[in-house]
Design brief:
Elements (H helix, E strand, L loop, with lengths): L1 H14 L5 E6 L15 H23 L5 E10 L3 E3 L9 E3 L3 E13 L5 E14 L5 H6 L3 H11 L7
Parallel strand pairs: 1-2
Antiparallel strand pairs: 2-5, 3-4, 5-6
């Protein structure tokens, strides 16, 4: 019975080690500048966007944040890469048309907290960048959902601790 108790104690000890976490809240996504593919139900598009971004944040939190830190995000607006257009697709299936150069814009508020929930930094960011579809990663860009949106946020996350 003693080895079993030791295993429980060790697992409790490791589970109490502070994890880095990104928590995202999507504020009024129905009002975002551009989150949809034309022809898709709004709820479906919003759910797809949130699910994909939450998966992204779950991967990035341990790469970017220090142990025990929490980043709280409030996504206020999104203007996705490209334009949604139904007329170019076969059988009028919705598609997102992305030109050789595309702009992505995301507006967010953030609070970065340390392990004792003290605010390290906070603010509002208006992220925007132009991306190109040329180069060696062009195929990956086309195959990865929300590639440009994730790249924009990833770039910002890498600068999160720069001022501190």
């Amino acid at each position: 019975m003693k080895p079993y108790i030791c295993m429980i104690l060790v697992s409790l000890m490791f589970s109490s080690i502070a994890q880095a976490t990104i928590k995202a809240e999507y504020v009024k996504p129905k009002e975002y500048t551009d989150i949809y593919l034309s022809g898709q139900p709004a709820k479906r598009e919003i759910n797809m966007f949130i699910k994909e971004m939450d998966k992204f944040f779950a991967k990035e939190d341990k790469k970017i944040l220090k142990a025990g830190h929490t980043l709280e995000l409030r996504i206020l607006d999104v203007d996705r890469a490209g334009e949604s257009d139904i007329k170019y697709a076969p059988i009028h299936e919705p598609r997102r048309i992305i030109e050789d150069v595309t702009r992505v814009r995301i507006v967010l508020e953030y609070r970065l907290l340390d392990e004792s929930n003290q605010v390290i930094s906070h603010g509002e960011e208006k992220l925007k960048e132009l991306f190109t579809l040329t180069g060696s990663r062009a195929l990956k860009r086309r195959q990865t959902k929300l590639y440009f949106e994730k790249q924009l946020i990833r770039g910002w996350l890498k600068t999160l601790y720069d001022a501190h």
